[in-house]
Amino acid sequence: MPENESYPDSGWTKQSIKGDINADESFDLLDVITLQKWLLHEQIELADWKAGNLVNDEKLNIYDLIFMKKRLLQS
Ligand SMILES: [Ca+2]
């Protein structure tokens, strides 16, 4: 197998997945729930808030949550 076809399992530069704010390496409903809770000022920490910054404005807010929900529904 050519080297560039080996699947990124180990040894690849870790990049944050868009929307993966709890940094568990997948974007799913849990991330939406986490952001929602965070927006409601619950005492939770976002592991990677920048991953949730889907509307690129350097802020994390309700618009990102809406985007995130849309993305989830499309996947
Ligand atoms: Ca996640």
Number of domains: 1
Strand content: under 5%
What order do the helices and strands follow?
HH
Report the principal-axis shape.
Answer: globular
How does CATH name the architecture? Orthogonal Bundle
Reported for the largest beta sheet, the result is:
none
Tally of contiguous helical segments = 2
- Classify the secondary structure makeup into a structural class: mainly alpha
Radius of gyration: 14 Å
- In whole angstroms, the N-to-C terminal distance is 30 Å
Keywords:
globular; binds calcium ion; Type 1 dockerin domain; single chain; mainly alpha; 75 residues
Give an overview of the whole structure.
There is one protein chain. By secondary structure, the protein is mainly α. It has a single domain, classed as Type 1 dockerin domain. The protein is 32% helix and 0% strand. Bound molecules: calcium ion (CA). The site of calcium ion has 8 residues, from helix 1.
Concise description?
The chain has two helices and no strands. The protein is mainly α. It starts with 28 loop residues before the first helix and ends with a helix.
Layout of strands and helices, then pairs:
Elements: H1 29-39, H2 62-74
